[in-house]
Structures are given as structure tokens and as C-alpha cells.
Amino acid sequence: MTGKRRALIVVIVAAALVAVAAVAYAGRFLGDAGATGDEYRLESPIPPSGAATGTGGPGASPAMTDSSATSTSVPPEASAPATPAAPPVPRPGEDTTGVPAGVTLTAYTGPLRITKAGTVIDGKRIDGCLDVRARDVVIKRSVLTCGDIMIKIEQKTANLTIEDSDLDGAGTGFVAGYWNFTLTRVDAYDIQEGPRVGSNVIIQDSWFHGMRPAGSDDAHQDLMQTNGGSNSTIRGNVFDATSAVAGVSFNAAFQVGAEFEPLENVLVEKNWFNGGGYTVNIRDDPEISNVLFRDNVFGPRHGYGAVSRADAPGIIWEDSNVAESDGKPVW
């Protein structure tokens, strides 16, 4: 074989080898004619939940990591936990309590000492304090103005109902009551003290506010108070024992005790309480049993705390009694 022919064969063989290599290299990207394309699809940059990720960020290969390398991914900022909201409770006010809009009041000319059973007073402006001594008396859609004891129930069988009415204390009055009465959608204001809760009392959907100072440092004014009694329900009311006068504070929105007789079987639920030294001030009296507080919300105003002695014997205080500000239990 001549030298020229030998050189030509070498060139042909080299060219063939180059062609084969080129075809193989191209096949890595193009695949064969029968491929579906799935075999060559790029991996998603977002790994499946729980899949390992490398230091290069989500989707990077976990292989061949350098222990001295620092991750370039930036972790998301932690979100501040949301402030839990206090559970909604009814907030009776000027639109839902007192004399309904459109009622025309006329002067009440009947007796202030009521002795006739079944007496109904409707749509009246009552100037004076009531002394109820009969059963089944109803006062509705009326305004009672009294600067002393607004409602006296001398007999424990009186069974008085007051609804959709205003109780105006004229700056010096207090609601009183004591036994066997129901207050529904009542607006009580400009008072030194509110209702006294004895036995068989229902106070619901009402608004007690606008307390006035008694002018004595030892007055110990309470917006509502019980000194004993049984079978009463306090539900869905606003008790706002605050003053618009700077520097004036009151003893409690609800003073709870059993000084005069045992206190038992009382339900206090879904109210909004505010103000006082302790908003709910509970005495450590021995004859208290089955007094349940639940689902009440406490406003921001108090001198010492929302409640005192919530763990006193006979008091059932649930964690559902919470602060309006953060929804957390107040005890």
C-alpha cells in the first residue's frame, strides 16, 4: 500500500468516528423517534411535599454538597400570631334598650304604691319612685324618673316585669328590686347604683351605665349587687361601671356575696362587664353554691383586675370569661 492510500484510510476512519460521536451526543437531547417526550421532561423546580432539597434551593439536587457552603435561600419571615378575638356577646345600647322609637309618652297619674294585681303601665312618664305590693305588675315602654330607691318590692311574691323602658336615676337614684322581678331591654342611667339581685330575678338584654358618684369616699358603689338569694339569671347585658368624671371610680360592676342569706343557683352569662376596682368582686362567704360565670367579656377598665376570688368555694368560673382586648381568660 502506498503512503498516500494509507493516509486516506486514516482520514476516512477518523471522520467516521467523529460522526458516530456527534450522533450519540445529539441523542442525549433529542431522543429517538419513538420517544414520548416524558423521558426527557425537565424536573419541576418545586419538589413534592416532603422531598429533599439541596443547598441550592428548592428542587436542587441533594448530591455533592459542600459542608462549608452556606445556603443562599432566604427563609420566610415568621408571621406574628393573630390576636385571638373575644367571643361575640350581646352589646345592648341606645338602639336596643329603653323606650322604642315612635312611642308617645303621656303622664302617669296612677298611684306610686301599686297594690292591684295585674296592673299594666304602658307608654307613661312616671315621675316618682315605685313601691310594688301586688303580683304580676307590668311596666313597659315607659320612663321612670326617681332620685331614690327606684323600685321597691316589699313582698317576695310581687313578680314584677319591666321591659322596653328607661330607668332615670336623676343622678342620685338606684334601681334596687331584690326579689321576683324581670328586667328586659331596660336602659338604666344617671344612677348611683343599679339592681339588687335576690331570689327569682331575671335581668336580660339591658344596659346599665352612666353611674354618678355618691360624694362619699366610703360609698362602695356597685352597679349590680347580690347579698344572697337563689334561682336568678343575668344574661346578655352591659354593665359599665365607669365614670365620665376624671379620677372617679366605683367598687364593682358586680358585687357578689352572701351576707344576708345563702347564694345559690345563679347563672351569669354572655354579659359585657367594665369598670370598678375589681370588675366582678366576689366575697369569700361560706354559703355560696352553684354560682356559674361563663361566656362573659371584660372591658379594659378596672383598678385591680377583672375578677377577685374566682376560685372561691361555690363559684364556678369558666375559662370562657375573657378579656375583650385579647380573648384570653381573665382568671
From TrEMBL:
Keywords: Signal
Coiled coil: none
Chain intervals for the UniProt region annotation (Disordered): 41-102
Signal sequence extent: 1-26
Biased composition (Low complexity): 60-83
Gene3D superfamilies the UniProt entry points to: Single-stranded right-handed beta-helix, Pectin lyase-like
Identification of the protein by name: Right handed beta helix domain-containing protein
Organism (species): Catenuloplanes atrovinosus
